[in-house]
Amino acid sequence: RSNPATYTGLLEPVRKAFAKANGVKPALFSANSEGACPTCNGAGVVYVDLGMMAGVDTPCEDCEGKRFQASVLEYHLGGRDISEVLAMSVTEAEEFFGTGEARTPAAHRILERLADVGLGYLTLGQPLTTLSGGERQRLKLATHMGDKGGIYLLDEPTTGLHLADVEQLLGLLDRLVDSGKSVVVIEHHQAVMAHADWIIDLGPGAGHDGGRIVFEGTPADLVAARSTLTGEHLAAYVGA
């Protein structure tokens, strides 16, 4: 049932904005509470157990997969009902909650963080089970960006990212470092390695052939030495 809106806390200011605009309770705008479709209990799908075979799920016929009661969908904010808002991408929602009748600063701040980590294409109601490992990491990073923690540890956050989104992620990591945070990234992406302040290279090979520190220093030093496989590939990447 979890999705980017519930995981990041975005749904809370959205529910309150809908409630205030329509003079009703915020609980109506949660598919896990009073506003849930009674047929599918807010899941949007109906599960059928096929005994010896794998179970299947089909879209709920009553709510058509929207997860909410029909009466709840009659309430609008900025011309959209709650199911339409949850179907928006982060990029669309950032604009929607940034201006006009639907302007909600608390929601907009969370959406800005999601866009900063390169998740502008995700829909707010997309199940977390459909996200890749890299997407889940970036979602968690966006959630904790406002915290006071001093160290961020990321395991291959570029997984599934387009090249342009990698550049955006690097910009975000730079801002975290500039704000006094320490960022440790376990990564094979050469753009991230070339951008790092310091590299610890484990090798000399992978798996059972690795496990030892074979280099420690700046990316420039690693390229100049070319003493490891990583150094050779990084030198080819930067054209050295």
Number of DSSP helical runs: 10
The topology string of helices and strands comes to HHEEHHHHEHEHEEHH
Strand content: 5-15%
Largest sheet: 2 strands, antiparallel
- Rg result: 22 Å
Helical amount: 25-40%
Q: Using the alpha-carbon principal axes, give the shape.
A: elongated
Say how many strands there are: 6
Biggest β-sheet: strands ordered side by side in the sheet = 1-2
Explain how this protein is built.
There is one protein chain. With about 240 residues, this protein is an alpha+beta fold. The protein has a domain at about 1-130: ABC transporter ATPase  like domain (ABC transporter ATPase like fold, Up-down Bundle), CATH 1.20.1580. Helices cover about 40% and strands about 10% of the residues. The chain contains 10 helices and 6 strands, in the order ααββααααβαβαββαα. It has helices at about 5, 10-20, 80-85, 90-95, 105-115, 135-145, 165-180, 190-195, 220-225, 230-240, and strands at about 45-50, 55-60, 150-155, 180-185, 200-205, 210-215. A two-stranded antiparallel ribbon has the order 1-2. Strands 3-4 form a two-stranded parallel sheet. A two-stranded antiparallel sheet has the order 5-6. A hairpin with a 7-residue loop joins strand 1 (about 45-50) and strand 2 (about 55-60). Helix 4 (about 90-95) runs antiparallel to helix 5 and helix 9 packs across helix 10 (about 230-240). The protein is elongated and about 70 Å long. The mean pLDDT is about 90.
